[in-house]
Amino acid sequence: MSTIISAFQKAAMWPISCEIAISKLRVYSKPRPITPTTPTTLPLRQVTPKPSSFKDSEQGLQRWKTKLTELLSSPSQKSYSTWVTGTEEVLASGQLQQLDLQVLQRQVEEQKKGKNRSRARLQVGGKLCATRARELRAAKAELTAQKAQAKEARVAQQATNQVRRQLRGLGVEARKQERLRKKRVRALTRAGNPIPQEDQDPIPDPEAGSEASSKAGSEAGSEASSEAGFERGGERGGERGGSEPEPEPGFTRASELELEPGFQLELEPGSGLAFELQRGLEEGGGWEGERESM
Fold first, then answer.
1. Which of 217, 216, 198, 214 is nearest to 206 (CA)?
2. For residue 85, what are the domain limits?
3. How far, CA to CA in Å, does 41 sit from each of 38, 44, 46, 47, 151?
4. pTM of the model
């Protein structure tokens, strides 16, 4: 008790006074927050916006149609539904006309841009003569043709790759079915059961058939190219033979020489005899003479 009394004395609150205690409490107490009260207002009715397009008009018409149809009487409902149907048709036709007009405007703008870009230019600035213009035009036409050929080749290559991919897929499926068929045949053979008719014939592989046909076509093409090369070589040899130089004096032609077996002859390169011997070897006479001597 003495401790409590001494505490009050040290705080200058002795003797105890209620007014002093309340004043001290008012200083150290936290103020309470005051929340402002907002006045209650009724929600405003939504105002129908003013339509700015055919779509807005159609949406507003549908909204009012659902609200007013139930409030009107039977005769009024009939006349109102007729009016709504006609208005919808008018709005739809107007929307279609607007879309057609937009398409036409876009086409006209594209045509104008195309006309501006369609001016053929051979040279930008400077003097251009007729000969140079023809050369530039021919080079431009050649470049356009090369681009067209490259595009055709690219399209053909893409089509070929697509066909190859399809054939590869068919080949994978065919090989899978063939493995399953062989497995069924082995199982039936081990069990001693008869093999059904659909499992007796092997399933062909379309990819293998296409590879064989492509190889045959490539071999035929290589043979044709080699034959054409031989023919061109013969023609070139004939032309070269028609314009062959005369043999040097003191030498005879290779076709008129009679050589003994084992005879060796050293020729000077570029001489007439060397030329004749080379021509005879190309025509096959020299090879036949060597076979007979052997």
1. 214
2. 55-115
3. 9, 9, 15, 17, 73
4. 0.31
Residue 165 lies in a domain: no
Residue type, 243: S
Confidence at residue 147, expressed as pLDDT on a 0 to 100 scale? 94
Checking if the pLDDT of 156 tops 80, the result is: yes
Measured in residues, the chain has a length of 294
Give the chain's end-to-end CA distance (angstroms, integer): 150
Q: Does 74 map to a domain?
A: yes
Mean pLDDT of all residues in 47-57: 78
Over residues 180-191, the pLDDT tens digits come to 999 999 999 999
> Are the C-beta atoms of 95 and 54 separated by less than 8 Å?
yes
Examine residue 75 and state whether it is found in any structural domain, yes or no: yes
Contact 170, 207 (CB under 8 A): yes
Per-residue pLDDT at 240: 47
Sequence-separated (6 or more) residues with CB below 8 Å from residue 92: 58
CA gap 57, 95 in Å, rounded: 11
The dihedral through the CA atoms of 110, 115, 117, 120 has a sign that is positive
